[in-house]
């Protein structure tokens, strides 16, 4: 189980959601990096029961994902996934970057 995020080929910084150019070095060459897990910084439960988490990707950005399959709390390490339908257990869902950006290399 993993989630795809964007990696700058010039400076190595990781981004989510995908960028059109690197805000660190200004280059436009990216690859897709598969990230296995992230650490929960904090969680928020919405009125409809949806659990959102601020997740710190090791060596990468903090992102907001949806926690699916059970509870999670600050300090938990959760697997990441880009696909809701084929994944079981407690994990954090991030949208597929190819669905959130108009341009992918
Ligand atoms: Zn860069």
What are the salient characteristics of this protein?
105 residues; mainly beta; 5-stranded mixed β-barrel; 3-stranded antiparallel sheet; 8 strands; elongated; binds zinc ion
Strand content: 35-45%
Sequence of strands across the biggest β-sheet: 4-5-6-8-7
Spell out which ligands are present.
zinc ion
Terminus-to-terminus distance: 23 Å
Helix/strand/pairing category: mainly beta
Mean pLDDT: 88
Secondary-structure element series: EEEEEEEEH
Tally of strands: 8
Quaternary organisation: single chain
Number of helices: 1
**What is the domain tally?**
1
Largest sheet: 5 strands, mixed, barrel
**How big is the Rg?**
14 Å
Instruction: Give the fraction of residues assigned to helices.
Output: under 10%
What does this protein look like?
The chain is mainly β and 105 residues long. The protein has one domain. It has 1 helix and 8 strands, in the order E-E-E-E-E-E-E-E-H. The protein has one helix spanning 97-100; strands at 3-8, 14-15, 30-35, 37-45, 51-56, 62-68, 77-81, 91-93. The strands form 2 sheets. It has a 5-stranded mixed β-barrel with strand order 4-5-6-8-7. Strands 2-1-3 form a 3-stranded antiparallel β-sheet, with no helix packed on it. Strand 4 (37-45) and strand 5 (51-56) form a beta hairpin. The chain is elongated and about 40 Å long. The model has no long low-confidence stretch (mean pLDDT 88). It binds zinc ion. The site of zinc ion has 8 residues, from loops.
């Amino acid at each position: 189980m993993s989630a795809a995020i964007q990696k700058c080929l010039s400076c190595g910084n990781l981004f989510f959601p995908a960028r059109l150019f690197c805000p660190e070095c200004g280059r436009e060459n990216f690859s897709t990096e598969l990230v296995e897990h992230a650490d929960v910084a904090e969680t928020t439960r919405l009125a409809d029961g949806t659990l959102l988490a601020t997740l710190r990707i090791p060596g990468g950005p903090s992102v907001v994902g949806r926690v699916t399959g059970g509870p999670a709390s600050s300090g938990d390490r959760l697997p990441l996934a880009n696909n809701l339908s084929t994944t079981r257990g407690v994990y954090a869902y991030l949208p597929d970057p190819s669905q959130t950006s108009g341009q992918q290399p």
